[in-house]
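Notes on consecutive records. When two proteins share a document, each keeps its own sequence and its own token line. Never mix them. Below: protein one.
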Amino acid sequence: MPVNGRSTRRQMLARTGALGVSIAFAGSLSELFAGTAAAQTLGRRGYGPLVPDPNGLLDLPEGFRYQVLSREGDRLRSGEGRVPSHHDGMAAFAARSGGPRGRVHLVRNHENRVDAAIPVPAVEGLTYDPAGKGGCTVLTLDGRNTVLSERVALAGTAVNCAGGPTPWGTWLSCEETEDKAGTNGHTKDHGFVFEVDPANPRRTGAVPLTAMGRFQHEAVAVDPRRGIVYETEDAFLKPFGLFYRFLPDRPLGGTGSLRAGGRLQAMRVPGVPDLSSVQETGARFDGIEWVDVPDPLASGTPVRLQDFGRRGITHAQKLEGCYWGGRSVYFVSSFAHSADGSAADHYGQVWRYDPAARRLTLVVVFGPDTDLQLPGESPDNICLAPSGGLMVCEDGSGAQHVFGVTRRGEVYALARNRQAITSTATEAGGTPEEPEWGEFAGVTFSPDGRTMYVNCYTPGTTFAVTGPWRG
């Protein structure tokens, strides 16, 4: 997720405290919430201004409160080592057995590279490559969000960024890398998807789902009716990433079924080689094509560079979040910069693909800031809230936010990283800088809809946010 980016005017304003949080937002919100019954009456407005946190961690609206569930460097309750660095994608699952009702398994990615300060501890039976520093951990919580256990669920992987839940209650963890064996000290090829059973990680082990492709994975979403898995590729530099679908040989076969293999395809939008060239919300493209990937394992050439035939394939910069809603899959392009080679500039798009109609629609466009006429920060992880709203993790510079988006197209701040404000302010004043937190990541809700869980990327911190959620 983090990008080695350029210094921006937004970043400089953040350091002086002059930056507002309002961002422009255009699009058809009814489409985003089509799959949630609550969206018909709820999620229509925000929760009021953010109240500064006296503890200097997380600003929330009045009536909301947070708990710190886990911090990088603390001891894992399992005794396997320390809580790893770089908290990223996340999902919450109801614990269906082994305790009272209301328990939750919270599975969390760690986007660790070779230089990670605290790697995911290697655990026998759960480690893919002993040289890999990434993986997943699982927190088990009671009905009051008290942490009952915290343990390793997957180790020996690399750059575990996002992923997505399956209809059968497992987590698909995605490696955002294309390192091959012998690169960065790795002993095995990387760039795969791994399945994690949050209730019993040893049931799934550390087995790469190789048929789903080897590329810079970001997020996935599963069609609950057909079992097709949609995948985004986060490629910052040209050639940019692709949007994929995986047609499993055993669709909806339950835990382990994706190991049976299948066919990987990439999306072609006729006449549109680069999605950034589309600027108007509501723009619609029918007759979407899916082209077989020549070499899903990218044994010689990265997938996005392979030969997809005379008509080519459709690329997009920074494809990130992905989720299923109603009868469609939605995916995010965080930004596009013409200076990087994109066809046009934008500050965030949300696309909707309707498989039944084979139709792609540009639903939402973010930015620029309405108050300062600056680029709105890039949307990253994204999820539907039980109240019918959309929650978006901001990935940019300075103060970071979790934004809510209402059905009327209003954008409001639900959470703000207070420590990031402090660090940039002290830097501007010439005093020693406190550690700056990275972006928010992994926003998700408990199965009962009463708690929002979210990570700060660095130093890795997992929060539980409760309050007067509507609905």
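Protein two starts on the next line and is unrelated to protein one.
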Amino acid sequence: MRGVEWPTLCLLAVCYGLWMLGTTAAAEVWLPLGMAMVTFSTALHSSLTHEALHGHPFRSRWANAALVFPALTLVVPYLRFKDTHLAHHRDSILTDPYDDPESNYCDPKIWRALPGWWRAVLRVNNTLAGRMLIGPALGTVAFTLADLRRMRAGDRRVLLGYAQHLPAVAVVLWWVAAVGQMPGWAFGLSVYAALAVLKIRTFLEHRAHEDARGRTVVIEDRGVLALIFLNNNLHVVHHMHAAVPWYRLPELYRGNRARYLSRNGGYRYRSYGEVLRRYLLTAKDPVPHPLWPR
């Protein structure tokens, strides 16, 4: 039993404040500043949405969903994010090309059947630079097309997710058009940049590994990206303690570092700077799952 998690609630208020200021006064004073504020707050809002679907800052799932109702990223309905992400938290299916909704691997048999130009695009997408530049577009299109197929097949849960998503997008677009001082192209570019920043986090969160415990990363970063990602860079800690709020993860990691690194087989990076240096233009993994179907 717990009460209100005030750090999360206060950070959410700051997030919305930065976003509203970025789309209005800051954009009017100096557009690049406004765009930077919108990018930062939109990416942060996505991380706060992740907290909400894991049961923070309230015990009520309805209250948590209401707090992150505005779809600042414009894509991926809250209910779809919740359903797919909670399915992803089954460690036994991590990186599975079929059962893990967040896997970036594909079935080698499917890979061999793809045309050469499409394989080339996916190889570019497997570098960090490619993941940031084209990854948001590729991921959004693939996710949306898959959901359209589910809706055509009669999946009412998916249909409900998009029905709830429409007013969440509408309130954001209304603010930008009626209240905001930012051109539409600048707002769209800022949202895309936020999605690109989020791709840094998901780029190597999981690896193909025989042991499910060895598939989840730790990135010992304490900089601005760790703040935006709400300490989800300590990803194995989050997977082991999914109900723990973001602000307690560093303390858990510091107190049990050897245990966590033993559990994940030493899958660790010192910082996101190291990740950028190593993988900006180099693929960390192949696109086809290297251990499939074992």
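For the record: The mean pLDDT is 96.
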